[in-house]
Amino acid sequence: MYMNEQLFHRSAGPTNSKHTAHSDSRKTKLSRFFILLAAVVLVLVFSLCAPMLGGDQDALAASSSSHIKQTFEIEKGDTLWKIANQHAPKGQDVREYMYEIKLLNGLKSNLLQEGQLLQLP
């Protein structure tokens, strides 16, 4: 018999089956706990990241479906900033409202002409 075989036969002696069963059930419970913990962490991460993935869709939908409230005629000295500042809804950034006016009227720049009609969102 070789030395490796002797070591193998020594360690393969009788085992305590009660101790092994307890150890196996503890490992099973521990693995179930970690799987459950991983699932909870995954759900939390997804719920925190989901708004970042599609958060702008609501803002775009709201601005594109807004109704035309009024038409504004440009007078001498009027600027897009001035008009947006006067007519922007309370709490809305003036720059965002300017952008909405430009989109609604198909403007490519902030330059306005006297007598020009602007539709305001």
Commentary on this structure:
This protein has 121 residues and is mostly helical. It folds into 2 domains: 17-54; 57-120, Membrane-bound Lytic Murein Transglycosylase D, Chain A, CATH 3.10.350. It has 5 helices and 2 strands. The protein has helices at residues 3-11, 17-54, 56-64, 80-87, 94-105; strands at residues 70-73, 117-120. The protein has a two-stranded antiparallel ribbon.
Fill in the CATH topology of the largest domain.
Membrane-bound Lytic Murein Transglycosylase D, Chain A
Count of domains: 2
- The spatial strand order of the largest sheet comes to 1-2
Gyration radius (Cα, Å) is 35 Å
Any descriptors?
2 domains; 5 helices; single chain; mainly alpha; 121 residues; Membrane-bound Lytic Murein Transglycosylase D, Chain A
Describe the secondary structure blueprint for this structure.
Blueprint: H1 3-11, H2 17-54, H3 56-64, E1 70-73, H4 80-87, H5 94-105, E2 117-120
Antiparallel strand pairs: 1-2
In short:
The protein is mostly helical. It has helices at 3-11, 17-54, 56-64, 80-87, 94-105; strands at 70-73, 117-120. The protein has two domains: 17-54; 57-120, Membrane-bound Lytic Murein Transglycosylase D, Chain A (Roll), CATH 3.10.350.
